[in-house]
Amino acid sequence: MPESFEYLHVVTLDETNQLGNVYFAHFLRWQGHCRELFLRRTAPEVVSSLDHEHALVTVRAECSYLDELYAFDEVSVRMRVSEVVQNRMTLSFEYWRASGRRDLVARGEQQLAWLRRSGDGFEPVPVPEVLLRAIDAYLTEPVRTGWRA
User: Fold this and answer.
1) Which helix (H) or strand (E) holds 132?
2) Distance (Å, rounded) from C-alpha 29 to C-alpha 24?
3) Which parts of the chain span the membrane according to its record (predicted)?
């Protein structure tokens, strides 16, 4: 089994609804936090290119909810890279309760596209080599497919 990148989060009151459980959209927000911290830690040069040269676009995001989380629960968001094809990368997420009972509370997936800014829009470009090297430990399959620039 490949390694997973882990983001530990403590649920705050503002992330809950009137019933006291976490509002569903926050799970997707935590996917973004996990992804961005992964990039910051493993490929900071990719992050710096996002401001002026490249764009990282989420083309699909989903989450399946298995149990509830409440204020001050600790949740471990674990991310793996499940596929890299051409200019796209698919990430899989597991949300584990990290306080009290240690159980799986949700699963999610997100697909990202790497684009280069051009005069009047964007054009697809391969996932950067520096990021490909960084994600090797997090791939669920040993083979990447696609083209290279």
Assistant:
1) helix 129-135
2) 9
3) none
